[in-house]
Amino acid sequence: MRSIWNGAISFGLVSIPIKLVNATENHSIHFRQIHLADGGRIRYRKVCELDEEEVTSGEIGKAYEDADGTMIPITDEDLAQLPLPTAKTIEIVAFVPADQIDPLQMDAAYYLSANGVPAAKPYTLLREALKRSNKVAVAKYALRGRERLGMLRVVDDVIAMHGLLWPDEIRAPEGVAPEGDVTVRDAELDLADALMDTLGEVDMDSLHDDYREAVEELIAAKASGETVRPAESGDAGGGKVIDLIAALENSVQAAKKSRGEEGAGAEGEGDGEMADVHPIKKTSGKSSPQPTKKSTAAAKKSPAAAKKSTPKSTGAKKSTSTTKKSTAKKTATKKQTSSSGGSGTKKTASSRKRTSA
Fold it and tell me: How far apart are CA 217 and CA 210, in angstroms?
């Protein structure tokens, strides 16, 4: 890997020659601006505001704009004369526990490589000292024309340095937290803990940029002249008022199901979705005809007769079938029901006479 800065680590009176190498790389896909009418590239030209002429990079310098708009030229020679002890040195100022570094301060990451054979011994000494102490080194260094803050730690067998923002560069989170008093119930916390346990840990090496892959496929398809089908848009659910308990329960079930755990998606649970509950509506007389008072009374008075007259129950079944078929017409249903009730009363009376005889 190509080094971007050469210098030394100042570890007390020990000086360790090192090379600074980028530890990260950007895989984002970059686009060019074009003229939509003809596809021509759009380029930016640097033009002087006074004579409106284009200038080259060699004719461009630095200046500080004062509050009244006055430009104060600053040359590289002016900056080089400033007392900057960290111009070519990473100066370690302290060793602290790693948890004392606020992650908000983390910036770019670099690898520090020993520069030459003589640097191997002191480099290894610092690396092993950091390992045994379980601490990180806080250092100051200069890069790209400004002094910066850094943190040195061990990654495998290499010393890595994270650029840190200065403490006064971190904004206070004023007005960011939710306003008002928000109460979280123990049941909600329990479900949140259950969801965290179910999701568990992840192999960081397995994570990748799905969007970048989709953009690459889009570019390849358009380059080959293929028709690009629009992707199905999922419902992000933004702005919806949800039942927090139900959402947590569903999330736990979905996480278990995706991991193939036992008890997830069992019979009767469906896909883990909450069922909608609706009040039971009263049915009208048209859809389910009610029995008449006469037929109800006859049924109560003659249970024994009903048992003895089983051969005649076929007629009752036919009558019931006829009633079901004619439910669409209210008048016909009432007449059929009344007729059924009257015949039932006559049959009961005749049965009583035969029984008394």
Answer: 11
CB neighbour list of residue 336: distance below 8 Å, 6 or more residues apart: 319, 322, 323, 326
Q: Which residue has the tokens 């950091």?
A: 130
SS3 call for 215: helix
Distances, alpha carbon 342 to alpha carbons 80, 288, 346, in Å? 117, 21, 6
pTM for the model stands at 0.59
**Residue 212: CB partners within 8 Å, gap ≥ 6?**
27, 28, 29
For residue 87, give the nearest of 6, 178, 169 by alpha carbon: 6
Distance CA 327, CA 283 (A): 13
For residues 158 and 196, the model is more confident at 158
Look-up of token digits 């016909």: 332
Eight-state DSSP code of residue 41: B
Instruction: Please give the single-letter amino acid code of residue 1.
Output: M
Phi, psi of 127 (to 5 degrees): -60, -45
pLDDT tens digits along 312-328: 444 444 444 444 444 44
In this structure, is the dihedral angle defined by the CA atoms of residues 321, 327, 328 and 330, taken in order, positive or negative?
positive
Nearest CA-CA partner of 252 in 303, 202, 192: 192
Find residue 142's DSSP bridge partners.
147
Tokens found for residue 239: 């702005």
Helices (H) and strands (E) in the chain, counts: 9, 9
CA 68 to centroid of chain Cα atoms:
47
Q: Quote the tokens at residue 269.
A: 């649970």
pLDDT, tens digit, 9 for 90 and up, residues 159-214: 999 999 999 999 999 988 888 888 999 988 998 888 888 887 878 888 888 888 88
Structure tokens at 273: 């979705």
Cα distance between residue 23 and residue 163, in whole Å: 11
